[in-house]
Amino acid sequence: MKLQYQFVAIMAACIVVSFIPVLNWPFTWIQTFFHEISHGLAAILTGGSVSHIEIHLRGSGLCYTSGGIRFVVASAGYLGASLFGVLLILSVAILSHRQATVLAIALACLTLGSLLLWARDLITIIILLCIAAVCLLPIKNNWHPKAIYILLQFIGCYVLLDAIKSPLWLIDGRSLGDGATLAQLTFVPELIWVVLWEICALTCVWFVWKSLKRLDDTLTHKGETV
Fold first, then answer.
1. Which residues of 82-96 are buried (b: 16+ CB within 10 A; e: fewer)?
2. Please, what is the Cα angle at 190 between 206 and 194, to 5 degrees?
3. Which domain, by its residues, includes 203?
4. Of 52, 70, 111, 113, which cross-links 120 as Cys (Cβ 3.0–4.6 Å)?
């Protein structure tokens, strides 16, 4: 199957799974983890620090930071999640089986490292253990090599899909969340930040589509010249 069509098929599967209670929990937690770790990394990279991270059963989360550039930290969550999704999808498209396995292990290590450094409550600890287990599941059980590719692409697509959906939840009139924080910092209305995050996420989807098309064209050309 062409990479583009596979991308569409997996995105469609993500949409279906996102509406299935319980089944969607691990992937929603993964998206939340990428969102919160993006806040944390932004804080660290701008001279701040991370106190702790919380991930809740319903899929919400918080990253408690201090120092750093507050504007960068506040804006990093949705942007970072989108970029993590893009990197996962495109990386898996060009990796060998061994490299994809290493990537899955690296994601599990990132999760477990965050658990050791920043998880303080039992629910967050359990959720991070579940995320690590999801990443390692096809490796530990010796699934077909294709399963690792599909799982990682599914995670990437789910994260990207959620990066499109999640900012819309901020339009609730409660003035809570990253949009409200940025509105207070910049005096730019929260709705504008929601629109910008939507544009960013949709641009990421377009970028993935175009990149996979180029990869498909390259593979087709190589096949024709062999």
1. bbbbbebbbebbebe
2. 15
3. 3-212
4. 52
